[in-house]
């Protein structure tokens, strides 16, 4: 039986990878809508877009963390109210919703991985806006809603930490990188694969609804990620210099500890993701990232 999937935010890094991953799934018929094609803050447009779909993967989001500090109402309209429109439309149509959220719903002051049910307490506007979306999914879709929190996402499409580091390597002899924030660098393709598996399990009635953590296993710092990116790209990791977060003041506070636990995946029959240092070399072998690495090794 064909399962029709709708991917919102399909022009972004994760949305594009989810669509690519769905081409490998037998019986999956996927529709991808970019933010220009579907404004999730428009409830009428959301209902029309969902018509005939059995699974919705919501990759649409306001992602400007610092910008949200001065525009929290606008960020919440997308990350909170927009998600509520999707959840309500899914509730009415019977579709499964996979909603992508963030580690920013936590305060970042822990010393052990945050469990899926750990208390939330965002420290910035972006985190509060994303938490509003999580609450909408839990309220409106208690049996068919899935919130998947991710963190430190990088990939082939769009700008992210790994692409930025490789681009800067062409122009700078040394790079100062924060060494006092801890997290789990996560390849967007690995998360896309996990989301697809979760959606299939949900359709089969095998995955309990609720919150899951979609990050790589293991942990490192931004400094550690930069050094490993350099090493794997044939660049000298000693060019990376550690600094504290205070060296880069930002409008929005960042959680210092963004390490998430993955205890709920076995109940869904879906394995946790591989370690971050297993994902990274696979990601860097992708043509677009490999080209950036080559350019960094041979700057003009």
Characteristic terms for this protein:
single chain, 300 residues, alpha/beta, six-stranded parallel beta sheet, 11 helices, 13 strands, globular
- The CATH homologous superfamily of the domain at 3-159 and 185-218 and 259-274 is called NAD(P)-binding Rossmann-like Domain
Quick check: average pLDDT? 96
Structural class category: alpha/beta
| Total beta strands | 13
Question: What is the chains' assembly state?
Answer: single chain
Summarize the main sheet: 6 strands, parallel
Shape: globular
| Total DSSP helices | 11
Distance between the termini: 54 Å
Q: How would you write the strand order of the largest sheet? A: 2-1-3-4-5-10
In percent terms, what proportion of residues is strand? 15-25%
Q: Give the C-alpha Rg.
A: 19 Å
Q: Helix fraction? A: 40-55%
Map the helices and strands:
Elements: E1 3-8, H1 13-22, E2 28-33, H2 43-50, E3 55-58, H3 65-70, H4 72-93, E4 96-102, H5 125-140, E5 145-150, E6 153-154, H6 161-169, E7 175-178, E8 182-183, E9 186-187, H7 188-203, E10 210-213, E11 220-221, H8 222-232, E12 240-243, E13 257-258, H9 265-268, H10 276-284, H11 287-297
Parallel strand pairs: 1-2, 1-3, 3-4, 4-5, 5-10, 6-9, 7-12, 8-13
Antiparallel strand pairs: 8-11
Describe what this molecule looks like in 3D.
By secondary structure, the protein is α/β, with parallel strands linked by helices. It has helices at residues 13-22, 43-50, 65-70, 72-93, 125-140, 161-169, 188-203, 222-232, 265-268, 276-284, 287-297; strands at 3-8, 28-33, 55-58, 96-102, 145-150, 153-154, 175-178, 182-183, 186-187, 210-213, 220-221, 240-243, 257-258. The protein has a domain at 3-159 and 185-218 and 259-274: NAD(P)-binding Rossmann-like Domain (Rossmann fold, 3-Layer(aba) Sandwich), CATH 3.40.50.720. It is built from eleven helices and 13 strands. The strands form four sheets. It has a six-stranded parallel sheet, with helices on both faces. The protein is globular and about 55 Å long.
């Amino acid at each position: 039986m064909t399962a029709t999937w709708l991917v919102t935010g399909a022009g972004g890094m994760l949305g594009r990878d989810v669509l690519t991953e769905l081409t490998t799934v037998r019986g999956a018929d996927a529709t991808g809508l970019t933010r220009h094609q579907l404004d999730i803050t428009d409830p009428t447009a959301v209902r029309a877009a969902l018509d005939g779909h059995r699974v919705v993967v919501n990759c649409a989001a306001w992602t400007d963390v610092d910008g949200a500090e001065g525009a929290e109402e606008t960020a919440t309209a997308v990350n909170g109210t927009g998600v509520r429109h999707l959840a309500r439309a899914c509730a009415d149509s019977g579709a499964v919703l996979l909603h992508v959220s963030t580690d920013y719903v936590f305060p970042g002051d822990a010393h052990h991985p945050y469990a899926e049910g750990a208390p939330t307490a965002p420290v910035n506007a972006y985190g509060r806006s994303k938490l509003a979306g999580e609450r909408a999914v839990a309220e409106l879709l208690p049996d068919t809603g899935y919130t998947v929190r991710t963190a430190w996402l990088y990939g082939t499409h769009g700008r992210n930490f790994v692409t930025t580091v490789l681009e800067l390597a062409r122009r700078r002899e040394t790079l100062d990188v924060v060494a006092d924030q801890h997290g789990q660098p996560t390849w967007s393709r690995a998360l896309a694969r996990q989301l697809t598996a979760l959606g299939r399990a949900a359709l089969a009635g095998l995955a309990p609804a609720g919150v899951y953590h979609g990050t790589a296993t293991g942990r490192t710092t931004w400094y550690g990620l930069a050094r490993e990116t350099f090493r794997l790209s044939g660049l000298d990791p000693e060019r990376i210099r550690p600094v504290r977060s205070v060296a880069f003041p930002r409008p929005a506070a960042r959680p210092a500890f963004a390490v998430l636990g993955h205890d709920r995946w076995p109940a869904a029959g879906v394995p946790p993701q591989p370690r971050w240092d297993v994902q990274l070399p696979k990601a860097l072998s992708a043509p677009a990232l490999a080209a950036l690495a080559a350019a960094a090794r041979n700057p003009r």
